[in-house]
Amino acid sequence: MLREIYRGISILLIQLGYPHRPIILGWNRHLALR
What we know:
The chain has two helices and no strands. With 34 residues, the chain is mostly helical. It has one domain. The chain is flat, with a radius of gyration of 10 Å. The two termini are 15 Å apart.
């Protein structure tokens, strides 16, 4: 399930053109807080 979510997020990031590192770090924090 995480893979699907991560894949969707990565696709959105590519479409938006945002850098990946800050978003991934934020998601790691979010998952860690979970």
